[in-house]
Amino acid sequence: MRRSIRTRYVVEDPLGTIAEDLRNAREAGYEAVELCIMGDAPPMRAWADELTPADVDALLTECERTGVPITSLSSDWVWKYTKDEHPLSDWDEGVAGLTRDAELAAQLGAGYILCHLGTSHGSWEDAKDILARIGDAARDAGVLWGFEASLFRRSGLGEFDDLLRMLDELNHPAVGAYDHCQYPRMGKPAHVQVEQVGRRLYGYHSSLLTPETTDYPKLFAALNAVGYRGDWVFEIDWKSAEEQCRQLKQLMAER
Fold it and tell me: Domain count of the chain?
């Protein structure tokens, strides 16, 4: 399981900023990064919509030079897309944007993407239709979607167990869950959630490590038991990056 960290939200110079984040990640001890795609609406995906094939090649070259690949993406532009309560019944443009994220992930060699529906509300069937459509796009691109479990509630569709029910009903091989270690602030103990998601776990996020409340040996054992092959992705401020990476390495060595 590689140690990864999210890139910055604010990007004025995409290639320069991402290249700097790759270098910073390497220096802090990380083995990969998650590319955060944040934009205004419109345009939804901002700078990501303007990337040329040459830009993608430049990013891949920088990944190779630093030894830090982009292994996952996070479709955070959806927050802007849904800021005015964009209904789930009118998500064609959103599906198109997520389809482009899947294509970009494939171009960059990333295996999975964090997705969610932002604050859009609507019916269960509307949500399932969206996930089925983006699932087909991911399948065609050869990548996986992980719906961030803690964000399912934002659309009024339920809690953690309801997301699992949605995944059961959908039964799409390219759509699973992206969990976040945030017990006891929300949800069940981290290892329990991993066990329940099972082999549908396609991504894993972490805030600052909390060994005082999280049983990391049990969590690592659960991740191994379900066959998790993704990264441990920190969603933290860069000022904490080096210390948190060092602490994670120590916890993993003690398991």
Answer: 1
